[in-house]
Amino acid sequence: MFLLLFVFSFVASSPIQDTVKLAEVEVYAPALDRFAQGQKVMSWTKQDLNNYQGRSLADILQEQSPVFVRQYGAGMIASPSFRGTSAGHTAVFWNGLPINSPSLGQSDLSILPISAVDQVSLQFGNAGALFGNEAIGGSIHLESGSSFGKGLEVGLMQQVGSFGLLNTHLTGGFSTQNFSSKTRIYRDFSKNNFSYQDLGRIRTPERKEDHAQFDQSGLVQDLSWNLNESNQLKAAFWWNKTTRKVQPVMGSNTQDEQEDQSIRAALDYFHFGKKSILNLKTGYVQDKMLFNESLNQTTQYFISGDWDQTFTEKWTAKTGIRYTLAVGELSTYTKDDSRIELYQSTKFKVSEGIAFSLNLRQLIYSGTFAPFTPNFGMDWSFWNNGSQSLQLKTSVGKGFKVPTLNDRFWNPGGNPDLKPEESLNGEIGLNWSGTGKITWKQGLTYYKMSVDNWIIWLPKGNVWTPENIKKVNNQGIEYQGNLAGDIGTWNWELTTSYTFSKAVTTQGTDENDQSVGKQLPYTPQHQANAKVRVEKAGFSSSLGTYFVGERAVTSDNPRMMRSFQLFNFGIGYDRLAIGKLHFPLSFQVNNILNTDYQVLYLRAMPGRSYQLNLSILL
Amino acid sequence: MKLKQLLWASALISVSFACSDNNDETPLGKYDNGILIMNEGNFGTNDGEVYHLNPNTEELLPNIFEAENLRPFAGLLEDIVLEADRMYLVANTGKVEIVNPADFKSLGAVSAELDQPRSLAVNGSKLFISDYGPYDASYATPDSYVAVVNGLDGGVVTKKIAVSSKPEDLYSYGNFIIVAGSEQDIIEIIDATQEAVTKTIALEASPMQFYAEDGVLWVYAVASDEVIIYTINLSSLTLGNTYTVPVANATNRIAFDGNDEMYILTSSGYPDYNDAVVTIDIEGNTATATELMTGSGFYGIGYDDDLNQIYLANANGFQGNGTITVLSETGTVIRTFDVGRGPSGFWVY
User: Fold this and answer.
1) What is the mean pLDDT of residues A549-562?
2) Cα dihedral sign, B235-B239-B241-B247
3) How far apart are CA A529 and CA A67, in angstroms?
């Protein structure tokens, strides 16, 4: 914790004496919720992210959000499930570029390290209009950036821990008032040689995992220039390479190896007008996946432009267009897909307390029209007595998923006639916040959603082929709470969340399908987490827990997996300094009670582990 | 309603007791009677299992391996072999579990050194296990073998005898192991003492399954548009008769009725994906094929020669549990019921 990227957050929070305009647009990142009225959005603070240095997006989502993460082992593939939807129903963005693989239609969260980004936000529910393809269950937004006027900043972090964990992160930044650069280099390594009870062997012996090694390296470069008072350029580059020995499912002796390599680049130009912002963007995302000796590669090229205008105090609008070329060079086919999408967002602020937004999007892929997606939302702060307030949020909208390149072109089996998946979502939420001796924020959201033309792959003779078959209805309740206060000189904070999710198949594959009326596989109905943190004079300590309820292995639910609850503990001190050098120190224990658990059937997970974090910051 | 079910249940129990009382020549265990249903399980989930069915009472016991051993089977169940008073459960995920056929309690295992085992044969005190070997870069299996284990209750692999790619069924006779070499359309004969291939017999189709009856070994072999059934003379280990039947798209799934008739599954594949049950009847020197039933998702076939019923398994797309349809010899549906994931075959006592 309290690691390097941290320097950045310190300074970012202090007031900057600059021209008014530039102070506002520091490094400009369009706010996620500018047109997201009525939608549930959450972001982590710098502090939260600092606690997850050396870990992946999968870990923070699992431990500190209502999202369920399907983990195939320690450091292995991890895919998100928002509100009971599948991994392919989550759009993932990095600096505004959609980075889901166009061939798989999803992202592996285990190889998106937290240390490579500065901000993580989640948006829940359909947002096809705001974010486009695959934003059905929700979307994940990652941002990196550098800030101006900080001079030279350097940091080194070293982590050592159980199961051969050895992480090294190096950060260097330099900035003036009009130019800034930040470079990160990291290597995360773990043998993952944890002990587990091998249920796949006679007499279920305790064994050491010997095939789950994780080795990841990466480089992130962020650059920003203020060309003049009204023009800004921002560039970001991210190279990440992960080599893994794929942890076998218990009972199998597979020795698979997987290497994932991604190159992502984004270049933004912002023009700040009197009452408008013009953004031109180009991007490049290449993913190479080598599974044993089989190579799958996809490349996406993006070019987009949008214009964000503030007409009056009440009316704001944004109009944009994006062109995407996705080129797939897979082991069994080579195909490309060009996409063009038009989007329009309008916000009408009736008064201080009430605002409406209307978002629209139309995407066309390879000449086919995806479903037109409108979204309408409202935020209404209807009660405020000075120290307490109540806010109502409600929205209704559509979402869609274009069939992936593999769905359409995989040879054999790809089905070029697939229709896009289509979803409809409505939600209503109430937020209660208060200030005083204790400050709090409590939120309750009810959502209801249906996904139609859900694509699943079915075996047909010797060949598997995808079809638009299923229809799924999801509904649930999400609670999120935060309480903070102080006892004497100690500050404390308690965050809690609980999710109830019912995701039921309403239309199955055929008359034999026993899944109709039952909960989707690997979709817990109950999930909860809580964390308490205390802090005083640079010393801090936290205890967190998360609970994942029973979930079924298959869609007809005959085999249920046990619920589990894990506890994590952390302690740190960040005021150790010699001259200008700072030495933040922290220590962490994960799975304190050494609980034996599996997230997915027969995929062993590690028991108790320790991790020591040492940093040097200049 | 509940009372009625209870009454039925007790009636069924007394019937089954009555049956076992009548059949007092061999004391029967819980599972070494009736029908065992193999559920292969789903790739990546390793949820293969065995169900036990009493075909007279229709009583079905699920997941009997896990129920008796308090651990999951944890593998993809490829084959069941009953030899030397032991039941060998062959998982193509790289192991063989050995249980007592009466109570399904674990007796041993072959847990290491295997890649993709397919079947097993017992010769003397040795186990011979056919194995595809590992995949190479292009998903071919050039290093297939037959593994040797000394000891009927499993243990370590002491030798891997190289054989042609993708060996399937094995048959043990005298001092020999007969291997179905499915990819190169050959039969390979292993000398069980020397642990080496000593003879090969070329075929015109891909051998899948052996079936022995009255000193004759039948070889079921498939080509793209025909099925060829060979006989092998066991005393000379030479080919005997050949029956060619024009059945297209035959799969490796076959059941024998013990009376020169067999039931096979066919699957047309892309683009129509029609599956069918075809019967092949051998009379004198000719074999004739008749299509009994068509559908989709057929994944296993069995035959109960006590009740003269056909058992047809449907994997239901591996999305959840599979379904068994019981058919009469003429193809009339008698009943259907759910079993485990990916039902793929039957062991009929």
Assistant:
1) 91
2) positive
3) 11
Judged against a pLDDT cut of 70, whether residue B24 lies above it is answered with no
Q: What is the model's pLDDT at position A463?
A: 79
What is the enclosing helix (H) or strand (E) of B295? strand B286-295
Q: How far is residue B324's CA from residue B335's CA, in Å, rounded to a whole number? A: 8
How many C-beta atoms lie closer than 10 Å to residue B6's C-beta? 10
In this structure, are residues B81 and B90 in contact, taking their beta carbons and an 8 Å threshold?
Answer: yes
pTM across the whole model: 0.91
SS3 A408: helix
The listed range with the strongest mean pLDDT (A17-26, A38-47, A235-244) is A235-244
Chain A residues touching B106 at Cβ < 8 A: 202
Cα A278 to chain center, whole Å? 27
Residue A7 has pLDDT above 60, yes or no: no
Residue of B nearest to A458 (CA): B317
Strand order across the beta sheet in which B196-202 lies: B167-173, B176-181, B186-191, B196-202
Give the burial class of A191: count Cβ atoms within 10 A of its Cβ; 0-12 exposed, 13-18 middle, 19 or more buried: buried
Interchain CB contact of A205 with B (< 8 Å): no
The answer to whether A142 and A117 are in contact (CB under 8 A) is yes
Nearest-angstrom CA–CA distance, A526 and A499: 6
Residues 9-48 of chain B whose Cβ lies under 8 A from any Cβ of chain A: 42, 44-47
- By C-alpha distance, which of A231, A298, A291 is closest to A263? A298
Contact B106, B96 (CB under 8 A): no
| In contact, A70 and A62? CB cutoff 8 Å | no
Task: Report the distance separating Cα B102 and Cα B100, nearest Å.
Answer: 5
Q: Are A317 and A345 in contact (CB under 8 A)?
A: yes
CB pairs under 8 A between A and B: 123
Query: Over the stretch A436-454, which tens digit does the pLDDT of each residue have?
Result: 999 999 999 999 999 999 9
- Reading phi first (left if > 0) and then psi (alpha if -120 to 50, else beta), residue A591 is in left
CA angle A298, A299, A305 (to 5 degrees): 140
Q: Which residues contact A572 (CB under 8 A, 6 or more apart)?
A: A1, A2, A539, A540, A541, A584, A585, A586, A587, A613
Residue A286 has pLDDT above 70, yes or no: yes
Chain A residues 495-514 with CB within 8 Å of chain B? 508-510, 512-514
Q: Find the radius of gyration of the CA atoms of chain A.
A: 24
**3-class secondary-structure state, position A116:** helix
Of A201, A251, A510, the CB nearest to B93: A251
Beta-bridge partners for B59 = B54
Q: What is the pLDDT of residues A81-103, one digit of tens each?
A: 999 999 999 999 999 999 999 99
The residue type at A336: D
Nearest chain A residue to B90, by CA: A251
- Name A318's Cβ contacts closer than 8 Å, sequence gap at least 6: A34, A35, A306, A307, A308, A309, A343, A344, A345
> Tell me, what's the pLDDT at A146?
85
Q: How far is residue A63's CA from residue B42's CA, in Å, rounded to a whole number? A: 29
Q: Which long-range contacts (CB under 8 A, 24 or more apart) does A285-290 make?
A: A285/A97, A285/A99, A286/A262, A287/A101, A287/A260, A287/A261, A287/A262, A288/A259, A288/A260, A288/A261, A288/A262, A289/A101, A289/A258, A289/A259, A289/A260, A289/A261, A290/A258, A290/A259, A290/A260, A290/A261
Class of residue A47 by CB neighbours under 10 A (exposed 0-12, middle 13-18, buried 19+): middle
- By the 8 A CB rule, do B134 and B115 touch? yes
Is-contact B250 B227, C-beta < 8 A?
Answer: yes
Of the candidates A503, A499, A548, A498, the one whose C-alpha atom is nearest the C-alpha of residue A521 is A503
Chain length of chain B: 349
